[in-house]
């Protein structure tokens, strides 16, 4: 966060604080503040991304639901797998909306009915999570 510009002892006789607290306050007064402000901007940007990503993810997945409405079920499985895998590889994206998306799409579009669609959704979500974890370990971890 920056190094102190100059080291000097705080005036103990003129302070109502203890020597240790006065030294800490004096140390903070001598910081270089510009690098600290750039870190504050980066942290604020990261916080904003983490707060907005679930909201924007829900909007994106609702838009994808509209796009995938008229698609064949086999192609829908493949496209949903690619969308889910991409979403899982993004760090600020939580997993719950991806699972909900798969459940909502497959239970409505499954040609065999609701319960087989729910089973397909659970299996697809499990495979998505396993594939994403394997990719993260191989691509990022090694």
Could you please describe the fold and organization of this structure?
- The chain has helices at residues 19-29, 33-67, 73-89, 96-109, 114-140.
- By secondary structure, the protein is mainly alpha-helical.
- Helix 3 (73-89) packs antiparallel against helix 4.
- The two termini are 30 Å apart.
- The mean pLDDT is 86.
Proportion in helices: over 70%
Structural class: mainly alpha
The Rg value, from CA coordinates, equals 26 Å
Which spans of ≥5 residues are poorly predicted at pLDDT below 50?
A: none
The outline comes out as elongated
Distance between the termini: 30 Å
Largest sheet: none
Report the average pLDDT across residues: 86
Strand content: under 5%
Number of helices: 5
Order of helices and strands: HHHHH
Number of strands: 0
Q: Could you write a compact summary of the structure shown?
A:
The chain has 5 helices and no strands. By secondary structure, the protein is an all-alpha fold.
What labels would you give this structure?
single chain, mainly alpha, 5 helices, about 140 residues
Topology:
Layout: H1 19-29, H2 33-67, H3 73-89, H4 96-109, H5 114-140
């Amino acid at each position: 966060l920056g190094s102190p510009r100059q080291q000097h002892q705080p005036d103990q006789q003129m302070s109502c604080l203890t020597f240790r607290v006065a030294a800490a306050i004096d140390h903070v007064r001598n910081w270089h503040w510009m690098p600290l402000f750039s870190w504050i901007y980066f942290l604020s940007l990261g916080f904003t991304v983490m707060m907005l990503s679930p909201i924007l993810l829900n909007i994106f997945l609702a838009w994808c639901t509209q796009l995938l409405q008229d698609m064949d079920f086999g192609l829908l499985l493949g496209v949903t797998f690619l969308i889910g895998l991409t979403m899982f590889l993004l760090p600020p994206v939580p997993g719950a909306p991806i699972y909900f998306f798969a459940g909502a799409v497959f239970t409505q579009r499954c040609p065999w009915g609701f319960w087989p669609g729910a089973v397909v959704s659970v299996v697809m979500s499990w495979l998505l999570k396993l594939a994403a974890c394997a990719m993260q370990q191989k691509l990022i971890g090694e």
